[in-house]
Amino acid sequence: MTDPASERRRMATALVNEDVLKSPWLRAAVETVPRERFLRPGVFLDEGRTWRPVTAVGTDPDEWLGIAYRVDTLTTQLDGHVTADEVDEPVVGVPTSSSTDPATVVGMIETLGLSTSHRVLEIGTGTGYSTALMCHYVGDDNVTTVEVDAQVAARADAALEAVGFSTWTVAGDGLLGHPYRAPYDRVIATCAVRRVPYAWIRQTRPGGVVLGTVGSWPWGTGLARLTVGDDGTAEGSFIGRSSFMQARAQAVAPVAGDLSARTAYADSERRTRVSPLVLEEWMPAFLAQLAAPGAQFVRATGSDGSPLRYLFDPERESFAEFVVDGESWTVRQGGPVPLWDDVERSLVAWQDAGAPEIDSVRLRVTAASHRYWIDQAPSLRWEHRIA
């Protein structure tokens, strides 16, 4: 029978070899905390169009450990309520909770720069595995973790207690933070947000760090590391690409219905300077979200099989429709905001600046706005006012 401790050591070694795991204390945590205990009652394995349920009970122990110590994200809930012990056959569904792959978890914790005296606020408890890794070092009384799904929070709390951590597990909206345990030295979010909630800044000590994924598309999102100032603002930069499930309070329903009806009446039509297909790439997608916050990118196919692409901004009642003609694209725009004009202007300036990566983008958060900029491209500046 496979020894769980040897599986933990193997995973730790793999993370070291990937240059993700660097701190001796964090390696000790990875080699100690049993990830399999945080995956109960089970997981869903991706089989393409369906999800196959695998439960801890009823699965060969060696197979279960092999799954638990994959360096992969493991889905633990579908559609906001379905867990693996509730179904017997592969099912269709949308992942709504998971155990994030250990490389991402460990990399984010390394980025926090934790010390044993730090008080930590975690947004998005999930299974509780990342919570346990931090508790192992700073102590369970110094970690507060908030989970919007009460059932997920209860399972995580039970798992944490079972492995010896009586931490502060709270069921609630993590976008509000948790003021009763503030101030914190570190805030870490394991969900994506459209913008960094100012509550996180307000609940963090001056000099403290807020770490979270910003963006609302499934791709084109970035990991922001902000340092809180004495004046109640926070500033920093995006340190790399990052992808997480959207915070449920900010999740946006996909655009549905008859797309041709939604785009029937355009105010303008012209050739594009940039192909809309670049929005399927990470950095252009990130820039599009800065230039047109609230816009959604939609892929479709015409009746003749030709590709169609759209930008929709339901809040501002605006759209951009893209139609291909040979090697070129035409954009039709409607509504009060010329979405593609704003996005295309940013993309052209970005290309002219040498197409810098996401770590060139800086961010300043105040109570009233989010300001983004790229130093080497003076024209690339965006300000999102908070209503």
Within the CATH hierarchy, at the fold level, what is the topology of the domain at 253-351? Double Stranded RNA Binding Domain
Largest sheet: 10 strands, mixed
* SS strand fraction: 25-35%
The counted number of beta strands is 19
CATH architecture of the domain at 253-351: 2-Layer Sandwich
Kindly provide the radius of gyration, computed on alpha-carbon positions and rounded to a whole number of angstroms. Answer: 22 Å
- Helix and strand string, N-terminal first? HHEEHEEHEHEHEEHEEEHEHEEEEHEEE
Oligomer: single chain
Word description of this protein:
By secondary structure, the chain is an alpha+beta fold. It has a domain at 253-351: Double Stranded RNA Binding Domain, CATH 3.30.160. The chain is built from ten helices and 19 strands. It has helices at residues 4-17, 24-32, 61-68, 102-112, 129-138, 150-162, 198-202, 259-262, 282-291, 339-352; strands at 42-46, 51-55, 74-78, 95-99, 120-123, 143-147, 168-171, 184-193, 204-214, 222-228, 234-241, 268-271, 296-301, 307-313, 318-325, 328-334, 361-365, 369-374, 381-385. It has a ten-stranded mixed β-sheet, sandwiched between helices. Helix 5 links the parallel strand 5 (120-123) and strand 6. Helix 9 crosses helix 10. The protein is globular. The termini are far apart. The model has no long low-confidence stretch (mean pLDDT 94).
